[in-house]
Design goal:
The complex is a heterodimer of chains A (245) and B (687). Chain A has 245 residues and is an alpha+beta fold. Chain A has eight helices and seven strands. Chain B is α+β, with helices and mostly antiparallel strands. The relative contact order of chain B is 0.08. Classes of the chains: A alpha+beta (245), B alpha+beta (687).
Chain lengths: 245, 687
């Protein structure tokens, strides 16, 4: 009987994961059909729900297209950026972003060199690479001595390689962390305020899709810094590429 | 002689007076001219304004209110009209009218018109409300007050009678009929709109002035395409009535469901612009027109956004059915650096007034400049056959959006059906000519660059390529400004980037992630790094321990001996419980041997009692009792005797004692043996 409990928990987790995946895929296909029928609002809703259940690059790409067709360039840009966050190799999302920025005359986020490096691969890859390379290097250093193997040159080479990879991933880690605080203005004319209140003086109005970096949060407002200015923005009008950060 | 001289003197006198008078007049005239020349000439516009009659603002403001018609059948339209002789901006009209809620009055129009009065212009402002009462009875909009020019003005009461048995002479409501052939449109697609204002069978007809097409997201042309009066058949088929027809174009600017209504003022035959009258005699209204605010029932348009997919390069918003004439180049043999004009004409059906020329491309070896297109629209728009049946995609409906109407003066009091619909595709035809100035900056070019251009055909729901093709040219050596060449080349380099278009839908969800939060920020990931750290750390500790034990083998020996001692002691206890003296003795001996072996070191089996005693001797000296030694001696003696006497017979003839014959008294020595073993154990355990 005690052996059945972990087995049943594992089975429940597997079943839940598979049911989530199947409902996410169902929503994806429903969204595709709605898009083909030019029902862009319905398509956007389906893609949004599918992405909420199972974030994936293709779903977010389609969500961006549906939002674009609805005339929501800010939300479209955010969706495509999130698609690239998951899969930087998604050329369609990249092209769509360039198209949208050209049409809407909005800037791309200004990335530091380590942020550019971090965008070459999915963020998770950097984390795994760092972990694996670090412990690989440590293992290559320690295990030969522990198991009384004769130290050879290739042991040291492997350790050095692992350490080198680890050190090279460090800037990318920093880039992932800082890039996770980049977001985009969702609504056109979103007011940037002096203080985090809805009655505060409006410093300027931001365009949909304009990038900004979140620095801190207070209540329903976030303090963001754009290329030209900084101020408080309503949380509902700002979408982070990585929402949980 | 005297008479003659006196008369001559008289004549001379008169002549002198006349001369003086003439000089005086001449002088005064010069003065007048001089003074006038000193005044600055007045602005002709000011003169024009001053010559206009003033707007009557001081007359007492009166309001009229009435239902049109005052008697209707259930479900029929009646228009409640309130009119003021005042400027619309000065009227504060109440938002809610004191009317029976069953009437369901809904404001349908508000407008202002200026009428010529006696020496002044009289403003007239009208408010229209529509109602389709469903229940029989009498409904009254009671008297209420509106504020005009800051003063209260009473609006009289008006009564509407709804009855099932309508008198035969009741005329239906005076209204405009709004017709839009296509109600399924794309954003930016021009649509023809037709307003009809039928006359009566007596031939009397009025025009409609100040026509407005009202709707959110709708751009309406201010000037009509055409306005005319022609005879249209009555719905019942009993003859024709002269009908005023006003045609214009609207363009939806946003997507979704848009609502369009039309309004205007009946104005006799006063119109702005030409009015074509066809189809027989009409009766001109005898009196000056009574400007009555007219409106139409609302029409819905379904507007879709232009599809992003399939958008071709060079699309500048042209929507319609267009064809491209072959382009014309002013010359085919050119000199580098000298401009040449490229002219191309686009013809077809669409809104040419808003046609935007394609963006000049950046081409290697060329500098291309564009000028504003010259546009001509054909004066008499001719119906164009509707486009071919659409491919699967957004379809063009063949139904016509028409608001119901009844021609005034018609015999039947019941609402009549709409006039025949307009065929789709009935938009003005025209042509636009694009002019481009091309300057070859290199002698190597062999043809003009193609200029991307495309349009959107609403009927097919697809983009049509209208790229202006390249033409072969020969470029001879000429004077080329180095700066121009460099600029042209730089533009060409920057312009050769890929043409960006939106992608299509992804067919599959693609690469997945559990969450968008980076792994580094998820709490489990740093904890997961502890696992390899733990494993490697454990291995390292194990290796250290192993090396330590290798350097100190006595520790291992002691540990093993301790384990063996304890094992044998457990066996001895077990044997004692079972009363097996032999096993007890054997286990006790082994335990003592195991506990003593590390002190030598030696194999435990090789030790004898004396060896054990030597180990214990120090302990005995410590506690001062020889009890332990005695116990050891007795156990070993008994065990040895039991073991070895089995091999040789006894001298007195008694049967040989075997090992199974170990005396039971050994079991009584268990406490002492336990004490010995405890001492040995203590000596084995490190301090």
């Amino acid at each position: 009987m005690p052996r059945l409990i972990p087995t049943s928990i594992l089975l429940a987790c597997v079943l839940r994961t598979s049911s989530m995946a199947s409902s996410s895929e169902t929503l994806f296909h429903e969204g595709t059909q709605a898009y083909a029928a030019a029902e862009y609002s319905s398509a956007a809703t389906n893609f949004e729900q599918s992405a909420a259940l199972q974030p994936s690059s293709g779903t977010l790409q389609n969500l961006g297209l549906a939002q674009w067709q609805r005339g929501q360039p800010g939300r479209a840009v955010l969706a495509w950026e999130q698609a690239l966050w998951i899969d930087p190799f998604n050329l369609h999302a990249k092209t769509n972003l360039r198209f949208a920025r050209k049409v809407e005359q909005i800037e791309a986020p200004n990335l530091a060199w380590y942020e550019v490096v971090s965008s070459w691969l999915p963020g998770d890859w950097w984390a795994w690479m760092a972990g694996v390379s670090l412990w690989f290097a440590v293992s290559a250093t320690m295990l030969p001595a522990i198991f009384r193997l004769q130290k050879r040159t290739w042991h040291q080479a492997v350790a050095a390689l692992g350490l080198m990879i680890f050190l090279l991933t460090l800037p990318a880690h920093l880039g992932v962390l800082t890039r996770s605080r980049i977001g985009f203005v969702l609504d056109k004319g979103a007011p940037l305020r002096l203080t985090p209140t809805s009655e505060a003086q409006v410093l300027t109005r931001l365009g949909a899709g304009e990038p900004a970096r979140m620095e801190r949060k207070r209540g329903n407002f976030v303090f963001v810094r754009t290329g030209l200015t900084a101020g408080w923005l309503d949380l509902r009008q700002f979408g982070l590429v990585s929402p949980s950060s | 002689m005297t008479g003659i001289s006196s008369s001559r003197a008289g004549v001379n006198l008169v002549a002198a007076d006349a001369r003086r008078l003439f000089q005086a007049v001449l002088f005064l005239g010069f003065c007048a001219i001089a003074s006038r020349a000193q005044q600055p000439p007045q602005d002709p516009l000011i003169n024009l304004m001053l010559s206009q009659p003033p707007i009557e603002l001081n007359a007492p403001v009166t309001a009229t209110a009435a239902f049109d018609p005052p008697v209707v059948a259930p479900g029929q339209l009646s228009v409640y009209r309130v009119t003021f002789n005042a400027l619309g901006e000065s009227i504060q009209f109440p938002a809610e009218l004191p009317a029976d809620p069953q009437l369901g009055l809904r404001r349908s129009a508000e407008g202002e018109v200026m009428q010529m009065g006696a020496g002044s212009i009289v403003p007239t402002t009208g408010f229209n409300y529509r109602t389709y009462p469903s229940s029989v009875g009498e409904f009254v909009v009671t008297q209420f007050v509106a504020t005009v020019y800051g003063k209260a003005v009473e609006v009289p009461a008006a009564k509407l009678t709804v009855t099932s048995s309508l008198p035969p002479d009741v005329q239906p409501a005076d209204q405009i009929v709004l017709e839009i052939p296509e109600t399924n449109l794309f954003v930016g697609q021009p649509a023809k709109v037709r307003l009809l204002y039928p006359g009566n069978q007596a031939g009397m007809v009025q025009a409609v002035s100040q026509v407005q097409l009202i709707g959110e997201g709708i751009l309406a042309d201010q000037a009509p395409i055409s306005q005319r009066i022609e005879r249209l058949p009555l719905p019942q088929g009993n003859g024709t009535v002269p009908t005023y027809i006003y045609e214009t174009i609207i363009t939806p600017l946003k997507s979704g469901k848009l609502n369009v209504t039309a309004q205007g003022f009946s104005s006799g035959l006063h119109t702005s612009g030409p009015l074509v009258i066809t189809g027989g005699a009409i009766t001109i209204p005898p009196a000056p027109p009574r400007y009555t605010l007219l409106d139409s029932a609302p029409l819905d348009l379904q507007v879709k956004p232009l599809p992003r997919e399939g958008q071709l390069p060079g699309f500048t918003g042209a929507i319609g059915v267009f064809t491209l004439d072959p382009p014309k180049l002013a010359a085919n043999v050119l000199k580098a650096g000298e401009p040449v004009e490229l002219t191309v004409t686009i013809r077809g059906e669409g809104d040419f007034s808003r046609l935007v020329a394609p963006v000049p491309p950046s081409a290697t070896g060329w500098q291309v400049l564009a000028s504003d297109p010259s546009i001509t629209i054909s004066p008499t728009p001719a119906p164009v056959p509707p486009p071919p049946s659409p491919s699967p995609g957004p379809s063009v409906p063949t139904t016509v959006g028409v608001s119901p109407y009844v021609p005034p003066g018609s015999a039947s009091p019941t609402p009549a059906a709409a006039p025949p619909p307009i065929k789709p595709g009935y938009l003005p035809q025209g042509a636009a000519t694009f002019h481009f100035t091309l300057i070859p900056v290199s002698e190597d070019v062999r043809a003009t660059p193609p200029i991307p251009f495309s349009s959107f055909e609403a009927g097919r729901g697809a983009y049509v390529d209208l790229t202006i093709p390249s033409l072969p040219v020969t470029v001879n050596k000429g004077l080329v400004n180095a700066d121009a060449a460099a600029v042209a080349q730089a533009e060409a380099d920057s312009g050769e980037e890929e043409k960006l278009v939106l992608s299509g839908l992804a067919n599959a969800p693609g690469r997945m992630a559990a969450t968008l939060t980076p792994l580094q920020l998820q709490p489990w990931f740093p904890l997961a790094q502890l696992a390899p750290a733990f494993v490697l750390g454990s291995l390292w500790v194990w290796d250290r321990r192993r090396r330590y034990l290798e350097r100190h083998p006595d520790i291992v020996l002691r540990r093993r001996a301790l384990q063996a001692l304890r094992r044998h002691r457990r066996a001895a206890r077990q044997a004692a419980r079972l009363g097996d003296a032999r096993a007890f003795a054997s286990s006790a001996v082994r335990a003592m041997q195991a506990g003593s072996a590390p002190h030598y070191p030696a194999e435990p089996g090789a030790l004898v009692g004396g060896d054990v005693l030597d180990v214990l001797r120090t302990a005995e000296l410590a506690d001062g009792s020889g009890r332990a030694a005695d116990t050891v001696k007795r156990v070993f003696a008994i065990t040895d005797a039991a073991q070895f006497s089995a091999l040789s017979p006894s001298s007195d003839g008694a049967p040989a004692r075997t090992a199974t014959d170990a005396p039971k008294e050994l079991l009584s020595l268990q406490p002492d043996i336990e004490e010995v073993l405890r001492n040995l154990e203590e000596r084995l355990c490190p301090a």
